[in-house]
Amino acid sequence: MSVTNxxxxxMLRVGERTFHTTAETLTERSDYFKAYFSGKWTIPTMEDGxxxxxxxGEAFEHVLRYLRRxxxxxxxxxxxxxxxxLYTSILEEAIYFQCxxxxxxxxxxxYHKSVTWHTSIKEVEGETIAVTGDxxxxxxxxxxxxxxxxxxxxxxxxxxxxRGEPSxxxxxxxxxxxxxxxxxxxEHMPLWHILKTEHNFNSExxxxxxxxxxxxxxxxxxxxxx
Length: 226
Prior knowledge:
This protein has 226 residues and is α+β, with helices and mostly antiparallel strands. The chain contains eight helices and ten strands. The strands form four sheets. It has a three-stranded mixed beta sheet. Strands 8-10-9 form a three-stranded antiparallel beta sheet. A two-stranded antiparallel ribbon has the order 1-4.
């Protein structure tokens, strides 16, 4: 093991993982690394020039991604929901490396604000219905909601293809009407309720410079909670 001043490119050995980054990236959002690379002391390195950090390599990968761009580690799957175990692991490393905004986002469960759910109900009518969905839909169900009475035009000559379409009736039909009131039948059309639950992503909660998160963090800091 040797000692060195802060290199421009940093190779970190974290657990069994190796990461390449820069001191600037590490120090911008981490008070731990800001002190580590402050220049107040020399930094011990391994024989290959790497710096050994005793931490969880898998969780640190997500911490480093945050340090690079300020993007929070949203671990969400539409079918399975949030990965709370991963959040817990990352939180422990974020506390250790003193990444205050990342700690706030995880500890205050701001990931729930990053993904919101909306349930909609749409009423449609018809003997058969076609429904399409997209990747945002988590659940969809179709429920029979009753029937709807619909007035249907009856041709005075009883021609079935004219049923419901008075525009198809010509002079002979009008003569057959002979001034009588137009007759209507009542057809009962099935009604359906389509219930769809969808998720939406809120980018204002997904980065440390997102408007919603910045406002939230500033309010916490104002009240001495950050």
